[in-house]
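Q: Joint fold for the lines below.
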Amino acid sequence: MPKEKATKTNKLIYPFHGGYLLELEDNKERDITYSFAKSVGGNDRFGLGGNDVAEEGTWVYYNSAKPVPKAVTWLPGEPNDAGGNEDCMVFWMSKGGLNDIPCGYNNIKYICEIPLGCDP
Ligand SMILES: [Ca+2]
Ligand SMILES: [Ca+2]
Ligand SMILES: [Ca+2]
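A: Joint structure:
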């Protein structure tokens, strides 16, 4: 059911004007946005744009379809595809880093980014 999962998540992206689920380029962006999630609080999981829905073990971002860079590091032992059903990237706040969890997970917040305009 990879397509259904992707559609479910895409619906969450559209309400944000010009924004999309967060795509981490490196650990610097990871640390900055993790701190942001921590300051927002209120949930142990914050969903990002990374997923391996299309091909197990191949992590890409929803919006750009770019691979999740090797420069972005996960929690030790993650992503582990626990139960063969973890295809979406989250910040796991109580563990302090990136984890993969089932895409249909209910109790979750999402982080989006909006590209800055570069008008002259
Ligand atoms: Ca980004
Ligand atoms: Ca997976
Ligand atoms: Ca996991």
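Q: Anything notable?
A: The beta strands are 20-21, 45-51, 60-61, 88-92, 97-101, 109-110, 112-113. Residues 27-40 form the longest helix (14 residues).
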